[in-house]
């Protein structure tokens, strides 16, 4: 395949869709320590892909390889249809990268940081000023544009960081833990920015230590552990792989409660609360089966709730519960 041809993957409706990032058998070692041991990825264009994993799992190594900052020891990788090893210049022209640590120069103003990036992308002065003004407005930084960046809050610096990444109009953006250290409000503002980028057709490759962030944003999620992809799928697909899901039925009529318990068979009873817990994978089919059995017996529950494992449960099950940082947990599900 020529490096200028964008590969395709199958879309949900069966039609081929462009693949923004793909890897086959990607490998990387440092001395005798294997960090990546054969990574296969295929990320459709215009989507958010989240890579999760314990500290030191190799998430940043994947980003560095795909953004041409380091070379792989083996395997193949394509970004925007270009071979990462054979045509790194074309890859760099198509991507933007925001690393774990801010690239903002605190000694100059936000506007000067932006104009510096415009110069690095060889934009004319007029074009650079136009793009700078548009991005500063888009990221709500116009009022602070003339202030030294060192005076910005953490959230403002992160917004400026991403705005600088967008100066070259990349179609694929790598965000390596973009919200680490931000307060909840700033984190939610960053999520909205990411959604807007994807709505404009940008592909976002996200690494994060905040599991609810992946749950909230990602179209697909992969869990990296021991150098391999332990699991990949949508958030709901991953949750259904983990045991512990159940349907909870609550009753106000004791006789209906007893009848339901007898009808459903394998249930966990809570006689004090008049509640039954039925194992379930949370799927529509499993829920319909429970409701059909109740309907056939003319039993009506007063309250029904479906409980599925969350991404925390998925993470612990797939990684053995190691390497999870202390983090504030927000209820977003």
From TrEMBL:
<dbReference type="InterPro" id="IPR017871">
    <property type="entry name" value="ABC_transporter-like_CS"/>
</dbReference>
<dbReference type="InterPro" id="IPR027417">
    <property type="entry name" value="P-loop_NTPase"/>
</dbReference>
<dbReference type="GO" id="GO:0005886">
    <property type="term" value="C:plasma membrane"/>
</dbReference>
<keyword id="KW-0472">Membrane</keyword>
<keyword id="KW-0046">Antibiotic resistance</keyword>
<feature type="region of interest" description="Disordered">
    <location>
        <begin position="1"/>
        <end position="24"/>
    </location>
</feature>
<keyword id="KW-0813">Transport</keyword>
<dbReference type="GO" id="GO:0008559">
    <property type="term" value="F:ABC-type xenobiotic transporter activity"/>
</dbReference>
<feature type="domain" description="ABC transporter">
    <location>
        <begin position="21"/>
        <end position="251"/>
    </location>
</feature>
<keyword id="KW-0067">ATP-binding</keyword>
<dbReference type="GO" id="GO:0016887">
    <property type="term" value="F:ATP hydrolysis activity"/>
</dbReference>
<dbReference type="GO" id="GO:0005524">
    <property type="term" value="F:ATP binding"/>
</dbReference>
<dbReference type="InterPro" id="IPR003593">
    <property type="entry name" value="AAA+_ATPase"/>
</dbReference>
<dbReference type="GO" id="GO:1900753">
    <property type="term" value="P:doxorubicin transport"/>
</dbReference>
<dbReference type="GO" id="GO:0043215">
    <property type="term" value="P:daunorubicin transport"/>
</dbReference>
<comment type="similarity">
    <text>Belongs to the ABC transporter superfamily. Drug exporter-1 (DrugE1) (TC 3.A.1.105) family.</text>
</comment>
<keyword id="KW-1003">Cell membrane</keyword>
<keyword id="KW-0547">Nucleotide-binding</keyword>
<feature type="compositionally biased region" description="Polar residues">
    <location>
        <begin position="1"/>
        <end position="12"/>
    </location>
</feature>
<dbReference type="GO" id="GO:0046677">
    <property type="term" value="P:response to antibiotic"/>
</dbReference>
<dbReference type="InterPro" id="IPR050763">
    <property type="entry name" value="ABC_transporter_ATP-binding"/>
</dbReference>
<protein>
    <recommendedName>
        <fullName>ABC-type xenobiotic transporter</fullName>
        <ecNumber>7.6.2.2</ecNumber>
    </recommendedName>
</protein>
<dbReference type="InterPro" id="IPR003439">
    <property type="entry name" value="ABC_transporter-like_ATP-bd"/>
</dbReference>
<keyword id="KW-1278">Translocase</keyword>
<dbReference type="InterPro" id="IPR005894">
    <property type="entry name" value="DrrA"/>
</dbReference>
<dbReference type="Pfam" id="PF00005">
    <property type="entry name" value="ABC_tran"/>
</dbReference>
């Amino acid at each position: 395949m020529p490096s200028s041809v964008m590969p395709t993957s199958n879309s949900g409706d069966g039609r081929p869709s462009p693949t923004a990032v793909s890897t086959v058998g990607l490998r990387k070692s440092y001395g005798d320590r294997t960090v990546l041991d054969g990574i296969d990825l295929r990320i459709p264009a215009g989507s958010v892909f989240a890579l999760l994993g314990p500290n030191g799992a190799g998430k940043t190594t994947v980003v560095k390889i795909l953004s041409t900052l380091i070379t792989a020891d083996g395997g193949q990788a394509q970004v925007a249809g270009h071979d990462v090893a054979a045509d790194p210049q074309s890859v760099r022209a198509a991507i933007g990268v925001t690393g774990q640590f801010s690239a903002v120069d605190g000694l100059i103003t936000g506007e000067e940081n932006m104009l510096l990036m415009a110069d690095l992308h060889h934009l004319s002065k007029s074009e650079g000023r136009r793009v700078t003004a548009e991005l500063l407005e888009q990221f709500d930084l116009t009022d602070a544009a003339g202030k030294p960046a060192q005076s910005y809050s953490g959230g403002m610096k992160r917004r400026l960081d991403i705005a600088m990444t967008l100066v070259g109009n990349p179609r694929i953006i790598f965000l390596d833990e973009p919200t680490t250290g931000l307060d909840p409000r700033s984190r939610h503002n960053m999520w909205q920015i990411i959604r807007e980028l994807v709505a404009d057709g940008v592909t976002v490759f996200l690494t994060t230590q905040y599991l609810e962030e992946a749950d909230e944003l990602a179209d697909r999620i992969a869990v990296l552990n021991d150098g391999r992809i332990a699991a990949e799928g949508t958030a709901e697909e991953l949750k259904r792989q983990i045991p512990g899901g159940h349907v909870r039925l609550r009753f106000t009529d004791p006789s209906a409660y007893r009848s339901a318990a007898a009808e459903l068979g394998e249930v966990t009873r809570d006689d004090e609360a008049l509640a039954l817990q039925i194992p379930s994978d949370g799927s529509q089919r499993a829920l319909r089966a429970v409701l059909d059995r109740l309907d056939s017996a003319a039993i009506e529950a007063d309250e029904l709730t479906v409980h599925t494992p969350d991404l925390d449960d998925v993470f612990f099950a797939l990684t053995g519960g190691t390497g999870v940082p202390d983090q504030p947990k927000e209820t977003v599900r």
